[in-house]
Amino acid sequence: VLRRQSSEDGPIEATEDHSVTATTPHTPADTYFVRQVVLQRAHALLNGTPPEVNELLGEPNLEDELLPLILPWIAVSETAQPALSALRRLSVSREGQLTDALLNPLQPIQVRKMLPHVLGHLPTERARDGLLWGLRSEPFTVRYQSAQGLERLCRQYLDLRPSQQPIFAAILREQKPGDEPELERDALFVTDRSNARVVPRFDYALTLLSVLYDPEAIELCRVAFSRGDTMMRGTAAEYLENLLPSDVFGSLSPQFDIEPVIEQRQLRGRAEIVADLANSATSLNIDVCTLRKA
What b/e readout covers 179-211, taking b as 16+ CB neighbours within 10 angstroms? Predict the structure, then answer.
């Protein structure tokens, strides 16, 4: 790939390099050169080996037109991280294009489930809205990753938190199993945070609650339901009952695995309940702050 170097007084020269500084053409020659660079890069993305593609994806000034050609590489293990980094650099003002790909059933699932990890880094309302649409998409793995991306976005940018209605609606939809035969709906799996085994659709609900409420308190609930004793699970259920509308709480309660004793407890404030959960986590040698950084 050639590099064009220009100065105010001298001619434009071409030297061997992998970056392009003349991204805005000013003359017909500039236009021709830039188009040639785009074509070369497009050819590399279409035909290159993973090491060649990784080298190209590391360029700091890739052209926007290359975005559709980069998408397939986020599904390849050797190129996934460089491709994600390149898409995050390119995707400012391209949220609509990414959302279209996220929702497109013709896109490979391996690509669609990675796109929330791009949208979740873009601090815009359009990125947030794209992730909210992802909560309505099929299959479950796309919804789950969309929830993960939304939680990350709203944890970093509190002003982008959505209203309660779409989050509660997504939780209620998921607690009513659909017709798709997905083993991952009910299989236990290892979470990314606490290495605890949780039913995916329940973990999905807790992730969405982290979008609206204190993420550390919700993480304590996740730990309680996955690794805590009966009393700790009961305390977590008490916190959620204190927090949520009755229909949302009721949809989640079958996952609590506790006796229905909450009604017998004296009503407590959220802060007291969270302190109780934190003390229980400490007794289990669980550092929740570390879990939140994971």
Answer: eeebeebeeeeebebbebebbbbbbbbbbbbbb
- Paired with 95 in beta bridges are none
Helix, strand, coil share of the chain (percent; to 5): 65, 5, 35
Whole-number Å distance between alpha carbons of 109 and 98: 14
Rg over alpha carbons for the chain, rounded to the nearest Å, is 24
The sign of the torsion formed by the CA atoms of 183, 185, 190, 196 equals negative
AA letter at 175: Q
Q: Are 82 and 76 in contact (CB under 8 A)?
A: no
Q: How many residues does the chain have?
A: 294
Please report, to the nearest 10 degrees, the dihedral formed by the alpha carbons of residues 260, 264, 269, 274 taken in order: -40
Measure the CA–CA gap between 248 and 233, rounded to whole angstroms.
Answer: 17
Cβ–Cβ < 8 Å for 172, 251: yes
DSSP notation for 171-194 = HHHHTS--SS--GGGTS-EE-TTT
User: Reduced to 3 states, what is the DSSP secondary structure of residue 114?
Assistant: coil
Asked whether residue 31 carries a pLDDT value surpassing 80, the answer given is: no
Task: Tell me the per-residue pLDDT of 260-282, one tens digit each, with 9 for 90 and over.
Answer: 544 445 557 677 777 766 776 66
Please name the residues in contact with 10: beta carbons below 8 A apart, sequence gap of 6 or more.
none
Cα separation of the two ends of the chain: 39
- Beta-bridge mates of residue 190: 197
More confident residue, 34 or 68: 68
* Burial class of residue 90 in the structure, from the number of CB atoms within 10 Å of its CB (0-12 exposed, 13-18 middle, 19+ buried): buried
